[in-house]
Amino acid sequence: PDLFEAPDYYNIDDLLSDEHKLVRDAARDWVKRDVSPIIEEYAQKAEFPKQIINGLAEIGAFGPYIPEEYGGAGLDQISYGIIMQEIERGDSGVRSTASVQSSLVMYPIWKYGTEEQRQKYLPKLASGEWMGSFGLTEPDHGSNPAGMTTNFKDMGDHYLLNGAKLWISNSPFCNVAVVWAKNEEGRIHGLIVERGMEGFSTPETHNKWSLRASATGELIFQDVKVPKENLLPNKSGLGAPLGCLDSARYGIAWGAIGAAMDCYDTALRYSKERIQFGKPIAGFQLQQKKLAEMITEITKAQLLALRLGQLKNEDRATSAQISMAKRNNVDMAIKIAREARQMLGGMGITGEYSIMRHMMNLESVITYEGTHDIHLLITGLDITGINAFK
Ligand code: TGC
Ligand code: FAD
After folding, report:
1. Which three-class secondary structure state does DSSP give residue 351?
2. How far is the CA of 352 from the centre of ligand 2 (A)?
3. Is the CB of 145 under 6 A from ligand 1?
């Protein structure tokens, strides 16, 4: 197939297995065929393209590393990363949908759920028949989720859930939501809430200038009766949702490389064709500086992600290592998007090219899953032992 140009300045392909390359080519081919041609239109009209859900399932984007017995793709962590990279080459919003489904909905059900919960939910989530969302953030508790006020009471034969979550990806169309709430003792637990439960609503958040092709909304619980069998029993406390975030943040570290590659590739091609002052703008030193720094930063980010993937495969990656990669790679991508946008001059602000969309998307990516500053403080805490959050 006619694939995207994929910068690989350090022959990193040599470090990938044949399976990694097969997974990558399938994802890349699908993004080029089914996502890139339509995504600008959906971003412009601020709508998630639901017709791509089947394709996402087919390339293994829903639960790449979830075992095949539960409908997952049974792949390793590097394959998971590569799939996120290829999807985000198309659009960060589409990658968000896959990240949430895999790392924030399937992962907690797989890791913290009962066998019955795994059997009931995972195959349907893997096939895309059901879509999930993840409710941690609240209107008054974003970076500090430990302060959450959403809560549930034990009513004997069921739980009664009250509260509200804000900024929830996939919420407007999710069939199930993994929701984090405090019990009467103030301990955080995960609950699976299903659409249709009385008192549960999911209003959409409009007027976003970022991640427009991803649906974002609220999760509102007004005396929702949640069956007792919907509680995730095998882990509680803030560490439970943070464990899910570790997996999603790892995927984002790879995903951001995809957005950066697309911006770099677009700027490189454009600059070789665009003639000003009698020569291609790629021939001017100032433009070469931009391109040379872009490929340098992409290469460093690729190596960081790949090494982190190896550590993840060996179950040795620490949360602080994941924070470093998420922070570095998203920052790398947003800077490349801004520089690449300038290289296209006026054309760079139009939807004829993907760069401005990536740039705006990355404003969400640098904020969600722990902001740029929060991840810096995680590194700071890790290396000094001193907590600067509070
Ligand atoms: P702290 O006292 O540090 O920790 C509480 C407990 O959690 C444990 N822990 C972790 N466990 C697993 N993975 C991690 N990354 C962990 N970090 C900490 C910790 O050991 C402790 O366990 P225990 O057993 O002692 O209780 O907690 P803190 O309240 O001081 O907060 C730390 C901080 C600020 C780093 C944390 O709250 C944080 O990461 N805040 C950022 C919030 C965030 O990232 N929200 C993301 C919401 S989801 C989202 O954005 C989805 S976007 C998806 C998309 O569309 O792609
Ligand atoms: P705040 O926490 O209010 O932070 C505001 C500013 O203060 C930031 O710059 C932050 O870095 C800084 N700050 C905060 N605390 C400190 C400190 N201790 N020291 C120094 N600076 C600090 N959440 C979910 O649960 N599920 C989802 O699916 C989801 N999807 C999202 C999709 C989109 C498009 C967006 C934009 C967000 C999404 N989020 C989701 C929420 C996201 O995780 C939060 O926006 C993020 O964690 C930051 O929280 P906040 O917006 O409340 O900002």
Report:
1. coil
2. 31
3. yes
- Whether 137 lines ligand 1, by a CB cut-off of 6 Å, is yes
Contacts of residue 207, defined as CB under 8 A and 6 or more positions apart, other chains included, come to: none
Report residue 277 as tokens: 């002052």
Rounded CA separation 71/317 (Å): 25
What pTM was estimated for this model as a whole? 0.98
Q: Whose CA is nearest to atom 4 of ligand 2?
A: 143
**CA distances, 342 to each of 46, 159, 244, 274, 347 (Å):** 24, 54, 36, 13, 9
**Does 352 participate in catalysis according to the annotation?**
no
Residue 173's Cβ-side half-sphere holds a number of Cα atoms within 13 Å equal to 15
pLDDT of residue 5: 72
Question: What is the tens place of the pLDDT at every residue in 119-142?
Answer: 999 999 999 999 999 999 999 999
Q: Is the CB of 239 under 6 A from ligand 1?
A: yes
**Calpha distance 130→358 (Å, rounded):** 27
Report the separation in Å between the CA atom of 364 and the middle of ligand 2, taken as the mean of its atom positions.
9
CA distances from 59 to 76, 279, 305 (A): 14, 42, 21
Give the helix ranges, DSSP H, for the chain. Answer: 18-30, 36-44, 53-58, 77-90, 92-99, 107-112, 115-127, 239-273, 285-313, 319-343, 355-365, 372-384
Atom of ligand 2 nearest to the CA of 141: 52
